[in-house]
Design goal:
The complex is a heteropentamer of chains A (342), B (235), C (242), D (287) and E (392). With 235 residues, chain B is an alpha/beta fold. Helices cover 34% and strands 26% of the residues of chain B. In chain B, α3 runs parallel beside α6. In chain C, a hairpin with a 2-residue loop joins β4 and β5. The chains are: A mainly alpha (342), B alpha/beta (235), C alpha/beta (242), D mainly alpha (287), E alpha/beta (392). Bound molecules: adenosine-5'-triphosphate (ATP) (2 copies) and magnesium ion (MG) (2 copies). Chain D: It is found in: Cell membrane.
Chain lengths: 342, 235, 242, 287, 392
Amino acid sequence: MSNQEYQVTRSSKAARVAAILGAIVVVILIAAPWWAGRADMRLMGEMFLYLALASLWNLMAGYAGLVSVGQQAYVGFGGYMLFALTMFAGLHPLTAIGLAGVLGALISVPVAVLIFRLRGAYFAIGTWVIAEVFRLSFAQVSALGGGSGSSLPVGIVKSLADARDTREALSYWLALGAAVLVVAAVYFFLRSRRGLALTAIRDNELAASSLGIDIWRTKLVVYIVSAALTSMLGALIFLQKLRISPDAAFSVNDWTAFVIFIVVIGGIGTVEGPIIGTLIFFALRETLADLGTVYLIVLGLVAIVVMLKAPRGVWGLIRSRFDLQLFPLRYRVIRSGSSKGA
Amino acid sequence: MPDDILRMQGLDAHYQDFQALYGVDMHVETGEVLAIIGANGAGKTTLMRSITGLIANGPGQILYRGVDIGGMRADQVARLGLAMVPEGRQLFPSLSVEENLVIGGQMGRRGAWSLEKVFALFPILKERRAVPSTSLSGGQQQMVAIGRALMSNPDIILFDEISLGLAPIVIKDIYNALPGIIGEGMSAVIVEQDITKALSVSSRVYCLQEGRVSLEGASATISREEISRAYFGIQ
Amino acid sequence: MTTILKLDAVCKAFGAVKVADDLSYEVAQGEALGVIGPNGAGKTSMFNLITGTLAPNSGRVVFAGNDVTSHNAARRCHAGIARSFQVPQPFSHMTVFENAMVAATQAAGLREHAAERFCIEVLEQTGLLAKANTTAGSLTLLERKRLELTRALCAKPKLLLLDEIAGGLTEAECVSLIRTIKDIHASGVTIIWIEHVVHALLEVVDRLIVIDFGRLIAEGEPHAIMDSPAVKEIYLGIEADA
Amino acid sequence: MEWLNAIVQGALLGGLYALFAAGLSLIFGVMRLVNIAHGDLIVLAAYLGLTVTAATGLHPLLALVVVVPAMGAIGYALQRGLLNQTLGDDLLPPLLVTFGLSVIIQNGLLEVYSADPQKLDAGALETASLSVGGLSLGILPVLTFAVAVAVIWALQWTFYHTSLGRAFRAVSDNQDIAQLMGLNRRHVFGLAMALALVVTGIAGILLGIRTSFDPSIGGGRLIFAFEAVIIGGLGNLWGTLAGGVILGVAQTVGAKIDPGWQLLAGHLAFLFILAVRPNGLFPRVAA
Amino acid sequence: ANPVLRVGHVSPRTGPLAGFAEADDYVLEAIQKTFAAGLENNGKTWSVEIISKDSQSNPNRAAEVAADLILGDEVDIIVAASTPETVNPVSDQAEINEVPCITTDCPWQPYFFGRNGVPGEGFMNTYHFFWGLEDVIAAFLDMWGQVDVEKSVGGLFPNDADGNAWGDAENGLPKPLAAAGYSLVDPGRYQPLSDDFSNQIAAFKEAGCEIVTGNMIPPDFATFWSQSAQQGFAPRIVTIGKALLFPSVIESLGERGEGLSSEVWWSPNHPFSSSLTGASAKDLAEGYSAASGRPWTQPIGFKHALFEVVADVIRRAEDLEDPAAIVETIAATNLDTIVGPVNWANGPINNVTKTPLVAGQWQKDGDAMELKIVANSTAPEIPTTGELKLLG
Ligand SMILES: Nc1ncnc2c1ncn2[C@@H]1O[C@H](COP(=O)(O)OP(=O)(O)OP(=O)(O)O)[C@@H](O)[C@H]1O
Ligand SMILES: Nc1ncnc2c1ncn2[C@@H]1O[C@H](COP(=O)(O)OP(=O)(O)OP(=O)(O)O)[C@@H](O)[C@H]1O
Ligand SMILES: [Mg+2]
Ligand SMILES: [Mg+2]
């Protein structure tokens, strides 16, 4: 019996088909300014931003075991940095978005040092408190409007592009780019050695550390990268919103609760989950949002029902039914060509 | 049959899609020590968990003193007088040693076992009664696990891997204590990998193989060859 | 003969319980050392001190000539120490194969493809290959223990620490386990093995140490140690004068 | 004197926070359940109080006779009907389910009671005060503090000195094995949630007397409650009281420096304590 | 068929600000009735479709739905009301997307300065009518001047859009109060939803304040007010913006609600009537009370007036297809509405015009609490209905 009979594979036919279809979809989406209406583009842009946020949150919670309910800290921080850098430093909005990411990474380091002392639920609450501290601190900065908030001067928005159509296309492409970049980055990261380490940490820290994985550093890297990218997304989001205030920027509902909803409905701990979740969330929102309180009650009910009936989310259901992986991460050991029994 | 305290009839058990037990027929006579042996993964733990209600099974598959306990919850089964010393000890970490024992007796079933009696059986536990159970060594924890089960004054007690991870001296102590434990009219089911040990303390033995009973017999008369055949299914 | 591991007056206490009390000994490169002692003597704790899961109150741990006392577990693993856990610690949501891959890629630092081949080899050696695609969380206790061994081997250690891996095995399984460990030892890996299944231990180890209350109370040729009155009394429970 | 006043008022405020936190601490300790809806349940209790006082004309404190058992029953039903199904090693299902619950309660209250701020009218109790060493203390905050101490004493006693408490701890450690001890975990958890919501009921009524409330104010209360629990250290209810007091004092002292710092100071105190004592000030030894 | 003109409407139907929008359904229904036959413009009849969306009291959501209305529903005019949290994000979206926008129900300083408006430049597409802080101050001073109290005022300003504007050293209360001889004790901006006001109370006591003023949300005021009693602080006049607008809030304070005072933007006694329906202020308020069984509230008038302005603009616009023409028409408005004259030519600053403001006090009238107008020298055309009584 030789182990030459065994082979390890990480791909599947479904995945290869999905990759091709995915590429086609992305190309179609890139062309949206030529076929979609303004409202559709705006909606899709928002969906992409949520998809990116959700993928990052999924990376943290679903893979690194960092369940944060405080990612709004970085969304808001990025948004405020966009305002500060464009209004006071006179930077071009695109430069400001990039720089917001860098600053987000920088500020996340001391935050991480502090809250990494916490585990599980403690960590979750710790992140929330951090976000509150961010909110209350920015509320004290009167140059940025304090608690009242501030609007982005029209001139700055127009510096993106003079014509409204170009501007709208540009901000659409930025959102699309962000989503594709984040999903791809998360996927390739998870396929790498470090991704394997991360999954191991999520399952068992004691074992991971005694197999040579530096837990603290691995988590720190994930946290910082998420913080940086989330800050950039925050800057992008508030470039569309045009107005920022502490309550809006650091809203736990808008930037974390809905994101968690998306990830969990779609399927946590899978790359596909956030994509499905985003589609479902927006479908619900577009059909029900005008019902006001009823919409929110429905959202709450959906979250509960999914959690109880399908804790691995919609993608989890699909995967267990069809053994399907569009973004294959698992290793499969298969016996090649042999028909011998064990 | 009036002498049966426990009877399994066509017991099946599943973990999601995976079937771990296939139509197991088995009985335990009142007052006897029954041994169950079998290779890893044969389904011994699954059997014990099914009996105690931790794994759901169909109605009519398990009778306890003639009563169908197949569909009951674990706590209901426990109240009827079944106790288990689980595989891997599984003490309550946030309870002290003494509380771990006391909670075993919280159903208020009457009988011979009390805190004093358990402490007399395992004196080291009395010494360490106030410490959290987590700070005991593996062997000491096994003593607590046994004491905890005894405290409920069960009519039948199930031991899963009774000697796993224990120093010879402790195993010896526990086996020495066994007659005293059983002596009170209690029945016992013991899962033990050390076949010699298993045969020496039991009156009858069942061998499980891949979820099925592959051998049944009186401990005193059963032969080694029969056993190894039953273990691995080698004809 | 070079020393690969040296414990130098290591002390560790949990409150009043001393799990390591002035513990000093050396292990030679390529040796197989057995460890016995009553339950609660501090054997597992000693492993925790060697791997860096526990920090000592005082004393030093020297591995391959370097003082590693202040290094964390991950760093010591990279230096070549791997262990199995007495209470198995699988990555429950990953498959058996992925569990092995973690060790091969992170601890042994193998590249993807080499790691895959190596893991298959080790899984075959430890008899888990048939379960390669099974989620570790659904293994039985004993399969989990075997997974512990597999993972430790996949880390390609210089020093392998085994904590009660023979418990609960049938005789046949035990024989095959002994063969596996002998093979590993023969390939040059230094082994420290804690085991209550003494006959298995005696088949493999060159030397035996006995721990009680965190202290080293006896050390030497295995059979001689087993015959010593102290071991008979505190460990085997045979009265010395009987 | 002004500083002393700030500290004393803060400590009394801490009593209210400790009451918010006590129920949370209990269920967190027993079930490892992070109840995001806790703040909204406090508000729900206040609204129940409102309904009872409006319907019967009872004094809000007397309304406790109805509200407390009602909250207990809601807690038991909620746990058995819904939350029991979410428990496990995973942190997320309870987090998300209680988040959903929070949204439902909040918007349900909005549908039923509208967004109008409401208040429980406790008559003279609201404005009565007593003078101690030159400080003017409201009877209501003093009463709240005393209730907090009593509630926490009772919970602590229940937890560590009764068989119910032992059952709580055992089930929280290992549900399967606890079942083998004849404990029905669903029932035990139901009782724990019932007890927690009993405390929440008391907290809600006292909140409703102290300040006006509307369906949206739960979230802010939730975070204070969590902070108090964590500052105090898990599993230690006296610690939770201390956590509440620290939070209250930090807020009033912060506000003394600048009112804008009131909430911030509370959070910073929380983070500071985490930085120096990650397990809280008084974690239960060896848990 | 007639050409269709779409009007987008954003208001906080749900959430903590929902009180401001509670009469929306009633007002919109009446408006839709008057629009049913269509509006005349340049000899053509236009059907007017009002699309109303809920901001959920959330500024993020307000921006979101405003963008939806503009991009998705392609509305020709967008309107919004109720606090800077709704008005500002909607206006910002309108400005950048070049859609004519009319807003109300938010003092003009937080509207103008809160959006980084530059005096002299203003905005391209967005217009606002309401009153300003100078009017509040004048009305308050007018009221306080009627009685003989210590001229020491305690200020309670939260760190939100309204609070920052009211407490602003340059454009807010401090300067004019000082000019009128009042000393203002302002401990600083507090965070909304505070549980404790001991420090403010101690400071007010220390300074011997007999007047308390500020702009608060109802829960904060309730907390402050009972703590004041507990801690032995008994001011003679308490005049608070926003928190004391709604009868439901006063009712929830019980006995202690009596005698509190507030600004009055609109009441059934205002001597104005609708340019659309001809109804008087009294008719509108009573109509609402009859229909809903609830007491009237001040935003009702402004919500109605908002659509009066819309109707007027639609009738007058030179070219309803051209946003720029609509904006021009808005700027040229001169209309007497149910809340008073709206004419952007007289604005205090670009894009803003003001309606009259007086001050009132909640007084017991039989069983119910009623907001009596007690000071009107800022707008003498609005009759007083009572006299200021001191607290305590
Ligand atoms: N939680 C689980 N999920 C899925 N399969 C399981 C689970 N637990 C056990 N099994 C499977 O059920 C079968 C029987 O397991 P069981 O634990 O009963 O065996 P056992 O005889 O006690 O073995 P051991 O001697 O290793 O303890 C095994 O094939 C095992 O892989
Ligand atoms: N984290 C801890 N806190 C407190 N006490 C501990 C801790 N870990 C171990 N101990 C105590 O240290 C002693 C030694 O434990 P250890 O697990 O090392 O024993 P062992 O020799 O491996 O025993 P066994 O053979 O039963 O596994 C025991 O008495 C145990 O109670
Ligand atoms: Mg087993
Ligand atoms: Mg050990």
